[in-house]
Amino acid sequence: MDASVVRFIVRYGVLLLLGLFILQLISTVLAILSERREPSATLAWLMVVVLFPVGGIILYYALARGRFRRHFRKREKNLRQAEAALSSCVERCRADSAMSSADLPAVERGLVKLAVESSNIPDTGPPFAGNTVEQYSHGAAKFGALMDAIRSARSHIHLEYYIVRADQTGTEIRDLLVEKAKQGVEVRFLYDGIGSLYAHQTNFFRDLKEAGGRVEAFLPLKVARIVERVNFRNHRKIAVIDGRIGFVGGMNIGNEYVGRKSKYSRKYRGWRDAHLQIEGPAVAALQRIFFTDWLLVTYKRGKTGEDFADVRYFPTVEPVGDELVQIITSGPGCQWPTLQHQFLQAINTAEEQALIVTPYFVPDRSLLMALESAALRGVDVRLLLPRDTDHRLVTSAARSYYEELLEAGARIFEYTGGYLHSKTISVDGRYGCVGSANMDIRSFTLNFEASAFVYSARFADSLRRQFLADVGDSVEIQLEPFRQRPRIRKFGQSLAQLLSPVL
Length: 503
Prior knowledge:
The protein is an alpha/beta fold. The protein has 3 domains: about 5-65, no CATH class; about 70-105 and about 120-325, Endonuclease Chain A (Endonuclease, Chain A), CATH 3.30.870.10; about 340-500, Endonuclease Chain A (Endonuclease, Chain A, 2-Layer Sandwich). About 50% of the residues lie in helices and about 20% in strands. It is built from 22 helices and 19 strands. The chain has a 15-stranded mixed beta sheet with strand order 4-3-2-5-6-8-1-9-18-16-15-10-12-13-19, with helices on both faces. A two-stranded parallel sheet has the order 7-14. Helix 5 packs antiparallel against helix 14 and helix 15 (about 340-350) runs parallel beside helix 16. The longest helix is centred in the first third of the chain and has 32 residues, at about 5-35. The chain is globular.
C-alpha cells in the first residue's frame, strides 16, 4: 500500500476516533445533567468524567446510568398479576395490625404512614401486630437459631443472601438444605451474583440442585451486560421457614460471622453485627419480599410457571407476642428512596436520643443536616462507626463529616473491638430498626435492602443496651484533637468527600 495512503488512513482514522470520543463525552455530560439526581452527585460525576474522560465514562455507564432502574420497574409492571395475588395473601395474614398501629403515638403513626405511602411493595408497608422478636448480636447465636429453624422445616425453606461463602459455615448451611430437600421440603435459595461470586462460579450449589432444591443468582455477571449489572446489588439477608419463622438483618453467610478463621478474622479480633428472628404475622411480609425478588429473577416473558399465592406459603399465623413490626424495603425499582425517607423522619422527629450504628457512613446533605439539626436542638445524637473497614476510601469519606457533626454537638465513637457490621437505630427509647441498609447513598438508592422497624420500648432498650456495651469497646472522637490531624489526612478526607456521591 502506498505510504501516502497509509498516512491518510492513520491521520483521519485518529481524527475520526477523536471526534467519536468527543461526541461520546458530550453525550455523557448531557446524560449526567438530564438525570434526576442530587446536585452534589451531578457535580461529582461531571468532575470524574471531565478529569478522567475514558475511565469516567466507563464508570458512569457502569455505576450510575438510570436505564437499568427502568428495567426493574418494567419487569415489576409485567408481574402485577402475580403481585396482586401475593398481596391478597399478605393482607389475609395481617390480622388486626391496622387497629394496633392506630394506637401508636403520633410520631410513630407518621413513620408508619410514610413507609406505607412510599413503599414499592404496598402490602408489606403497614405493620404487623402479634409478633415475637429475638435480637442477635453475634453470628454463632443467629446461625444456631437459623439451623434449628431449618431442621424443623416441614413445608418450605426460602433463603436470600447477599454473600454466601464456600467455607465451613456456608457448607454447613448448604448440606443441611440438601438434607431437607431430600426429605421433600421445598428449598429455594436466592443469592447475589456478585456478592457470592465465588460460590456462583464454582459448583458450590450443585448438590443442592441435584437434591431438588431451586437455586437462583440475582444479576450474575455477564460480559455482554456487565455495564448494566455491576452496580445494582441485592443486599438483603432474609430467611423464611414454613411461612412462620423469619430472619432479617445484616448477617451474611460466612465464617467471619461466627468467629471462624477467614481473611477477616485474621485482620479483626471479632465480628459485630445485628440480626433479628421474627415469629408471627410479620413473617408474611418477609415471604412477600422473597417472592418478589424470586419472580424478578425467574421472570421470562411475563410468565414464571410458579404460583406462590398459596396457604402453604402464607399460613394463618395466630399472634404469638406483642411486638408491632414493620418490614420496609428499598431498591432501584422504587419510585421513592423509602428507607432514606424513614431514617430522615426518625431523626427529624427524635426528641431525646438517637443512637445510630452503621459500618458505612456516607451521608448526603439531607441526612447530614438532619443529624446536625437534631444535635443542635438538644437531642442526644450518637454515632457508632468502625475504626477500620475494608473500604478505606469510604472510611476517609465518613471522617470528612466528623468535624461538622461534632461542632453541632453530636458524639461519634469508633469501634475498636473488631469489625463493626451492624446497621441499627434506636430512637427515644420507643422504637428501633435493624436491617441491611447502611447510612450511605448506595444503600438508599442502588441496593435492594430490607429493614425491620419494631415499635416497642423493650426492643429499643435492647438496642440501647447493646449500643452502650459496644461503646465500651470504642474510642470517642474529640473535636479539638480531631482538628489537629495532619494536613495530608485532611486533604485526603476532603477529596474522598468530593467523591462520596459516587461511592
